[in-house]
TrEMBL record:
It comes from the Bacteria. It comes from Pseudoflavonifractor gallinarum. Pfam families: Phage_sheath_1C (PF17482). Signal peptide: none annotated. Residues 243-360 form the Tail sheath protein C-terminal domain. This is Phage tail sheath protein. Belongs to the myoviridae tail sheath protein family.
Protein backbone atom coordinates (compact mmCIF):
# COMPACT_ATOMS: atom_id res chain seq x y z
CA UNK A 1 0.00 0.00 0.00
CA UNK A 2 1.36 3.43 -0.92
CA UNK A 3 2.47 5.74 1.86
CA UNK A 4 0.58 8.96 2.51
CA UNK A 5 3.56 11.19 3.30
CA UNK A 6 4.43 11.77 -0.34
CA UNK A 7 7.48 13.53 -1.69
CA UNK A 8 6.88 17.22 -0.97
CA UNK A 9 10.07 18.44 -2.64
CA UNK A 10 9.14 16.61 -5.84
CA UNK A 11 5.56 17.91 -5.70
CA UNK A 12 6.76 21.50 -5.31
CA UNK A 13 9.23 21.03 -8.15
CA UNK A 14 6.49 19.76 -10.46
CA UNK A 15 4.23 22.66 -9.49
CA UNK A 16 7.01 25.07 -10.46
CA UNK A 17 7.61 23.18 -13.70
CA UNK A 18 3.90 23.33 -14.55
CA UNK A 19 3.84 27.06 -13.86
CA UNK A 20 6.82 27.56 -16.19
CA UNK A 21 5.01 25.73 -18.98
CA UNK A 22 1.73 27.57 -18.36
CA UNK A 23 3.53 30.93 -18.35
CA UNK A 24 5.19 30.27 -21.69
CA UNK A 25 4.96 33.94 -22.69
CA UNK A 26 7.29 34.89 -19.84
CA UNK A 27 10.04 32.55 -21.02
CA UNK A 28 10.66 33.09 -24.72
CA UNK A 29 14.42 32.78 -25.27
CA UNK A 30 15.74 33.38 -28.78
CA UNK A 31 19.35 33.04 -29.98
CA UNK A 32 20.56 35.22 -32.85
CA UNK A 33 23.88 35.05 -34.71
CA UNK A 34 25.65 38.01 -36.35
CA UNK A 35 29.14 38.51 -37.78
CA UNK A 36 31.17 41.43 -36.50
CA UNK A 37 34.78 42.40 -35.88
CA UNK A 38 33.78 43.72 -32.45
CA UNK A 39 31.96 42.37 -29.37
CA UNK A 40 32.58 38.73 -30.29
CA UNK A 41 31.18 36.17 -27.90
CA UNK A 42 27.83 35.48 -26.21
CA UNK A 43 25.71 38.30 -24.80
CA UNK A 44 22.53 37.78 -22.77
CA UNK A 45 20.23 40.69 -23.56
CA UNK A 46 17.02 41.33 -21.64
CA UNK A 47 16.37 44.50 -23.69
CA UNK A 48 17.71 46.12 -26.84
CA UNK A 49 19.31 48.82 -24.66
CA UNK A 50 21.93 46.21 -23.76
CA UNK A 51 23.07 45.59 -27.33
CA UNK A 52 26.89 46.09 -27.35
CA UNK A 53 27.62 49.71 -28.30
CA UNK A 54 30.59 48.76 -30.49
CA UNK A 55 28.54 46.41 -32.64
CA UNK A 56 28.13 47.50 -36.28
CA UNK A 57 25.03 49.62 -36.98
CA UNK A 58 23.49 47.08 -39.37
CA UNK A 59 23.98 44.36 -36.78
CA UNK A 60 22.38 46.51 -34.08
CA UNK A 61 19.30 46.96 -36.27
CA UNK A 62 19.23 43.23 -36.95
CA UNK A 63 19.32 42.32 -33.27
CA UNK A 64 16.60 44.87 -32.47
CA UNK A 65 14.33 43.02 -34.90
CA UNK A 66 14.48 39.94 -32.67
CA UNK A 67 13.19 41.99 -29.73
CA UNK A 68 10.12 43.33 -31.53
CA UNK A 69 7.96 40.23 -31.29
CA UNK A 70 4.32 40.83 -32.19
CA UNK A 71 1.14 42.18 -30.63
CA UNK A 72 0.87 38.75 -28.96
CA UNK A 73 4.11 39.07 -27.02
CA UNK A 74 7.88 39.47 -27.31
CA UNK A 75 10.85 37.37 -26.19
CA UNK A 76 12.10 37.99 -22.68
CA UNK A 77 15.71 37.22 -23.57
CA UNK A 78 17.80 37.49 -26.72
CA UNK A 79 21.00 35.46 -26.65
CA UNK A 80 23.23 37.34 -29.05
CA UNK A 81 26.10 35.34 -30.53
CA UNK A 82 28.69 37.50 -32.29
CA UNK A 83 31.07 35.48 -34.45
CA UNK A 84 34.05 36.47 -36.57
CA UNK A 85 33.53 37.87 -40.04
CA UNK A 86 34.18 35.70 -43.10
CA UNK A 87 32.23 32.80 -44.54
CA UNK A 88 34.98 30.62 -45.95
CA UNK A 89 34.20 27.80 -43.52
CA UNK A 90 31.89 27.00 -40.62
CA UNK A 91 34.47 27.22 -37.82
CA UNK A 92 33.17 30.48 -36.33
CA UNK A 93 29.55 29.33 -36.42
CA UNK A 94 30.37 25.97 -34.83
CA UNK A 95 32.27 27.73 -32.07
CA UNK A 96 29.26 29.92 -31.40
CA UNK A 97 26.93 26.92 -31.28
CA UNK A 98 29.20 25.19 -28.79
CA UNK A 99 29.18 28.30 -26.61
CA UNK A 100 25.37 28.39 -26.32
CA UNK A 101 24.82 24.74 -25.50
CA UNK A 102 24.66 25.68 -21.81
CA UNK A 103 21.60 27.89 -22.32
CA UNK A 104 17.92 27.05 -22.65
CA UNK A 105 16.90 28.24 -26.12
CA UNK A 106 13.46 28.15 -27.72
CA UNK A 107 14.20 29.53 -31.19
CA UNK A 108 17.45 30.03 -33.09
CA UNK A 109 18.37 32.07 -36.17
CA UNK A 110 21.69 32.02 -38.02
CA UNK A 111 23.53 35.05 -39.41
CA UNK A 112 21.62 37.23 -41.91
CA UNK A 113 24.11 36.15 -44.60
CA UNK A 114 24.10 32.49 -43.58
CA UNK A 115 25.75 30.12 -46.07
CA UNK A 116 24.50 26.73 -47.22
CA UNK A 117 27.29 24.99 -45.30
CA UNK A 118 26.33 26.89 -42.17
CA UNK A 119 22.69 25.95 -42.63
CA UNK A 120 23.75 22.31 -42.70
CA UNK A 121 25.63 22.77 -39.41
CA UNK A 122 22.68 24.61 -37.85
CA UNK A 123 20.30 21.81 -38.78
CA UNK A 124 22.69 19.14 -37.49
CA UNK A 125 23.18 21.00 -34.20
CA UNK A 126 19.45 21.57 -33.71
CA UNK A 127 18.63 17.92 -34.31
CA UNK A 128 21.37 16.84 -31.89
CA UNK A 129 20.04 19.18 -29.20
CA UNK A 130 16.48 17.98 -29.67
CA UNK A 131 17.62 14.36 -29.49
CA UNK A 132 18.49 15.02 -25.83
CA UNK A 133 15.12 16.72 -25.23
CA UNK A 134 16.23 20.33 -25.43
CA UNK A 135 13.61 22.79 -26.68
CA UNK A 136 15.51 24.61 -29.44
CA UNK A 137 13.87 25.07 -32.83
CA UNK A 138 15.71 26.50 -35.83
CA UNK A 139 14.21 29.21 -38.04
CA UNK A 140 15.97 29.09 -41.38
CA UNK A 141 15.34 30.11 -45.00
CA UNK A 142 13.82 27.44 -47.21
CA UNK A 143 16.12 26.06 -49.86
CA UNK A 144 15.54 23.50 -52.60
CA UNK A 145 14.26 20.75 -50.33
CA UNK A 146 12.42 20.79 -47.03
CA UNK A 147 13.95 19.54 -43.80
CA UNK A 148 10.80 17.55 -42.92
CA UNK A 149 11.42 18.00 -39.19
CA UNK A 150 9.22 19.44 -36.46
CA UNK A 151 12.22 21.24 -34.96
CA UNK A 152 13.08 23.07 -38.21
CA UNK A 153 10.94 26.00 -39.40
CA UNK A 154 11.58 27.11 -42.97
CA UNK A 155 10.68 30.60 -44.16
CA UNK A 156 9.96 30.54 -47.89
CA UNK A 157 9.81 34.19 -48.95
CA UNK A 158 11.52 35.85 -51.88
CA UNK A 159 9.31 38.91 -52.37
CA UNK A 160 9.48 40.67 -49.00
CA UNK A 161 9.92 44.45 -48.92
CA UNK A 162 9.93 47.09 -46.22
CA UNK A 163 10.31 50.87 -46.40
CA UNK A 164 14.03 50.48 -47.14
CA UNK A 165 13.64 47.96 -49.97
CA UNK A 166 13.98 44.20 -50.45
CA UNK A 167 14.30 41.91 -47.42
CA UNK A 168 15.84 38.45 -47.74
CA UNK A 169 14.47 35.39 -45.96
CA UNK A 170 17.86 34.80 -44.32
CA UNK A 171 17.89 38.30 -42.83
CA UNK A 172 14.26 37.99 -41.67
CA UNK A 173 14.69 34.72 -39.75
CA UNK A 174 15.78 36.57 -36.59
CA UNK A 175 12.58 38.60 -36.74
CA UNK A 176 10.51 35.43 -37.13
CA UNK A 177 12.38 33.66 -34.31
CA UNK A 178 11.66 36.60 -32.01
CA UNK A 179 7.96 36.52 -32.88
CA UNK A 180 7.68 32.79 -32.25
CA UNK A 181 9.56 33.03 -28.94
CA UNK A 182 7.12 35.66 -27.70
CA UNK A 183 3.88 33.84 -28.49
CA UNK A 184 2.08 32.61 -25.33
CA UNK A 185 1.12 28.94 -25.26
CA UNK A 186 -2.56 29.89 -25.41
CA UNK A 187 -2.01 31.47 -28.83
CA UNK A 188 -0.46 30.58 -32.16
CA UNK A 189 1.55 32.76 -34.54
CA UNK A 190 -0.98 32.29 -37.34
CA UNK A 191 -2.00 35.71 -38.68
CA UNK A 192 0.49 37.52 -36.44
CA UNK A 193 0.94 40.94 -38.06
CA UNK A 194 4.19 42.17 -39.63
CA UNK A 195 3.46 45.88 -39.98
CA UNK A 196 6.93 46.85 -41.27
CA UNK A 197 6.54 44.78 -44.46
CA UNK A 198 5.01 46.48 -47.48
CA UNK A 199 5.08 43.42 -49.73
CA UNK A 200 5.46 39.64 -49.55
CA UNK A 201 5.87 36.88 -52.12
CA UNK A 202 2.88 36.89 -54.46
CA UNK A 203 0.99 33.60 -54.44
CA UNK A 204 -2.46 32.50 -55.48
CA UNK A 205 -4.68 30.91 -52.83
CA UNK A 206 -3.89 27.50 -54.30
CA UNK A 207 -0.15 28.22 -54.21
CA UNK A 208 -0.41 29.38 -50.61
CA UNK A 209 -2.17 26.16 -49.63
CA UNK A 210 0.39 24.04 -51.49
CA UNK A 211 3.30 25.82 -49.81
CA UNK A 212 1.83 25.37 -46.33
CA UNK A 213 1.10 21.70 -46.98
CA UNK A 214 4.73 21.30 -48.05
CA UNK A 215 5.92 22.52 -44.66
CA UNK A 216 6.80 26.07 -45.63
CA UNK A 217 6.29 29.08 -43.39
CA UNK A 218 4.93 31.78 -45.69
CA UNK A 219 3.50 35.26 -45.38
CA UNK A 220 0.38 36.80 -46.86
CA UNK A 221 -0.77 40.38 -47.38
CA UNK A 222 -4.47 41.12 -47.03
CA UNK A 223 -4.26 44.58 -48.59
CA UNK A 224 -3.90 46.23 -45.21
CA UNK A 225 -0.92 44.46 -43.66
CA UNK A 226 1.40 41.49 -43.98
CA UNK A 227 1.01 38.55 -41.62
CA UNK A 228 2.04 34.94 -41.07
CA UNK A 229 -0.22 32.67 -43.12
CA UNK A 230 -0.18 29.50 -41.00
CA UNK A 231 2.35 28.80 -38.25
CA UNK A 232 3.76 25.48 -39.44
CA UNK A 233 7.12 23.77 -39.22
CA UNK A 234 8.77 21.75 -41.99
CA UNK A 235 7.37 18.37 -40.91
CA UNK A 236 5.44 16.75 -43.77
CA UNK A 237 6.04 13.04 -43.15
CA UNK A 238 3.99 12.26 -40.07
CA UNK A 239 5.53 9.41 -37.99
CA UNK A 240 3.49 6.27 -37.44
CA UNK A 241 2.97 7.18 -33.78
CA UNK A 242 2.31 10.87 -34.51
CA UNK A 243 -0.49 12.99 -35.92
CA UNK A 244 -0.98 15.94 -38.24
CA UNK A 245 -0.86 18.43 -35.37
CA UNK A 246 2.88 17.82 -35.07
CA UNK A 247 3.31 20.07 -38.10
CA UNK A 248 2.01 23.05 -36.09
CA UNK A 249 4.54 25.24 -34.30
CA UNK A 250 2.18 25.79 -31.35
CA UNK A 251 1.67 22.09 -30.69
CA UNK A 252 5.38 21.26 -30.93
CA UNK A 253 6.19 24.14 -28.60
CA UNK A 254 3.88 22.61 -25.99
CA UNK A 255 5.28 19.12 -26.51
CA UNK A 256 8.83 20.42 -26.15
CA UNK A 257 8.24 22.39 -22.98
CA UNK A 258 6.27 19.66 -21.21
CA UNK A 259 8.78 16.93 -22.04
CA UNK A 260 11.70 19.22 -21.13
CA UNK A 261 10.36 20.20 -17.72
CA UNK A 262 9.11 16.68 -17.04
CA UNK A 263 12.55 15.21 -17.74
CA UNK A 264 14.61 17.85 -15.96
CA UNK A 265 12.38 17.83 -12.89
CA UNK A 266 12.66 14.05 -12.57
CA UNK A 267 16.42 14.22 -13.06
CA UNK A 268 16.97 16.97 -10.50
CA UNK A 269 14.44 15.91 -7.84
CA UNK A 270 13.98 12.15 -8.16
CA UNK A 271 16.79 10.34 -9.98
CA UNK A 272 19.07 8.54 -7.51
CA UNK A 273 17.28 9.99 -4.46
CA UNK A 274 14.78 7.24 -3.59
CA UNK A 275 14.62 3.42 -3.44
CA UNK A 276 13.10 1.92 -6.59
CA UNK A 277 10.01 0.49 -4.88
CA UNK A 278 6.49 0.23 -6.20
CA UNK A 279 5.31 2.75 -3.58
CA UNK A 280 7.84 5.34 -4.72
CA UNK A 281 6.94 4.72 -8.36
CA UNK A 282 3.33 5.47 -7.47
CA UNK A 283 4.37 8.66 -5.69
CA UNK A 284 6.12 9.75 -8.87
CA UNK A 285 3.01 8.84 -10.90
CA UNK A 286 0.88 10.96 -8.56
CA UNK A 287 3.26 13.92 -8.85
CA UNK A 288 3.17 13.74 -12.66
CA UNK A 289 -0.62 13.35 -12.65
CA UNK A 290 -0.91 16.50 -10.50
CA UNK A 291 1.48 18.25 -12.90
CA UNK A 292 -0.78 17.42 -15.82
CA UNK A 293 -3.88 18.48 -13.87
CA UNK A 294 -2.31 21.90 -13.33
CA UNK A 295 -1.66 22.22 -17.06
CA UNK A 296 -5.23 21.15 -17.83
CA UNK A 297 -6.51 23.90 -15.54
CA UNK A 298 -4.25 26.42 -17.28
CA UNK A 299 -5.64 25.45 -20.69
CA UNK A 300 -2.39 23.96 -21.93
CA UNK A 301 -3.69 20.38 -22.00
CA UNK A 302 -7.24 19.23 -22.81
CA UNK A 303 -9.24 18.66 -19.62
CA UNK A 304 -9.68 15.07 -18.51
CA UNK A 305 -7.44 13.50 -21.15
CA UNK A 306 -4.05 13.38 -19.40
CA UNK A 307 -2.72 10.24 -17.76
CA UNK A 308 0.32 8.68 -16.13
CA UNK A 309 0.86 5.11 -14.90
CA UNK A 310 3.50 2.45 -14.47
CA UNK A 311 3.92 0.91 -17.92
CA UNK A 312 2.79 -2.71 -17.56
CA UNK A 313 3.83 -3.81 -21.05
CA UNK A 314 7.38 -2.47 -20.87
CA UNK A 315 7.80 -3.74 -17.33
CA UNK A 316 6.63 -7.20 -18.42
CA UNK A 317 9.07 -7.27 -21.33
CA UNK A 318 11.91 -6.17 -19.06
CA UNK A 319 11.17 -8.94 -16.54
CA UNK A 320 11.08 -11.54 -19.31
CA UNK A 321 14.38 -10.24 -20.69
CA UNK A 322 15.87 -10.81 -17.23
CA UNK A 323 14.71 -14.44 -17.22
CA UNK A 324 11.86 -13.92 -14.75
CA UNK A 325 9.06 -16.48 -15.17
CA UNK A 326 5.95 -14.31 -15.56
CA UNK A 327 3.41 -16.84 -16.84
CA UNK A 328 1.79 -17.42 -13.46
CA UNK A 329 1.96 -13.82 -12.23
CA UNK A 330 -0.98 -11.43 -11.96
CA UNK A 331 -0.85 -7.96 -13.50
CA UNK A 332 -0.43 -6.42 -10.05
CA UNK A 333 2.42 -8.75 -9.19
CA UNK A 334 4.19 -7.73 -12.39
CA UNK A 335 3.66 -4.05 -11.61
CA UNK A 336 5.06 -4.47 -8.09
CA UNK A 337 8.03 -6.65 -9.09
CA UNK A 338 11.47 -5.15 -8.52
CA UNK A 339 12.99 -3.73 -11.73
CA UNK A 340 16.52 -2.92 -10.62
CA UNK A 341 17.26 0.73 -11.39
CA UNK A 342 14.66 0.96 -14.16
CA UNK A 343 11.40 2.90 -13.86
CA UNK A 344 8.93 2.35 -16.70
CA UNK A 345 6.17 4.95 -16.98
CA UNK A 346 3.70 5.87 -19.69
CA UNK A 347 2.01 9.24 -19.79
CA UNK A 348 0.38 11.60 -22.20
CA UNK A 349 -2.33 14.10 -22.97
CA UNK A 350 -3.69 16.28 -25.74
CA UNK A 351 -2.37 19.79 -26.24
CA UNK A 352 -5.01 22.45 -26.81
CA UNK A 353 -4.77 24.13 -30.20
CA UNK A 354 -5.59 27.77 -30.95
CA UNK A 355 -8.61 28.99 -32.91
CA UNK A 356 -7.45 29.18 -36.52
CA UNK A 357 -10.22 27.80 -38.72
CA UNK A 358 -13.74 29.20 -38.68
CA UNK A 359 -17.03 28.41 -40.35
CA UNK A 360 -19.74 30.94 -39.55
CA UNK A 361 -23.23 30.76 -41.01
CA UNK A 362 -25.32 33.92 -41.09
CA UNK A 363 -28.98 33.45 -41.84
CA UNK A 364 -30.62 36.61 -43.14
CA UNK A 365 -34.32 36.98 -42.34
Amino acid sequence: MATTNGLPTLKIAFEKAAAQVANRSKKGYVAVFVRDANAQGVHLLSSDALIPSNLGEDNKKHVKLAFEGSDRGAPSLVILVVIATGTDDTTALEGGLKAIEQYSIDYLAGPPDVTDDELTKLVEWTKAQRAVYRTVKLVRPWKTAGSDNMGIIELDESGMKDAAGAVTASAYCARMAGILAGIPMSMSATYAALPELTAVTERTTAEQTEAINNGKLILIHDGLQAKIARAVNSLTTIPANGNQDWSKIKIVEGMDLISYYLRTTIESQYLGRYPNTYDNKQLLVTAITDYFAYLEGAGVLAAGESYCAVDYDRQLRWLQSQGVETAGMTEQQILEYQTGSWVFLKCGGRLVDAMEDFEVLFEAK
